[in-house]
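WARN no homologs supplied; continuing
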Amino acid sequence: MTIQAILHGREGPIFSCSADQSVAEAVTILSEQRIGALPVLDGDKVAGIFSERDVIHGLRNLGAAVMDKQVADVMTADVISVDLQKSAIGALSLMSKRRFRHLPVVEGGKLVGFISIGDLVKYRIDKIESEAAAMRNYIQSA
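OK structure emitted
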């Protein structure tokens, strides 16, 4: 299964922020939407990722003053992304090896989706459960 299949049928916006927004504004979005990360956009291109971890590191380094900084000052700028044709297992492996939890999906240089490791784990569990049910049905019908 590809990333495109995982994103298929998703409704709603991709929440994001810009590099010039304040950390406080971005934290408000994370909190209100109950999410762990935001793609940081420059137009429709990914400039970085702002996550809970960035807030924690900023608090450690700058204290409460981090809230007045711009997202650009604390975001993760070295972004790895995937395209819609990447396999779900490949993306899960990439995220596990590189130890990050959010992955922008980009086509033609533009952000088209944003997935979490939770999305990929859910896909894996659903697939395993589906295969187990098919096996049970096969055994019962034999």
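The longest strand covers residues 45-51.
OK
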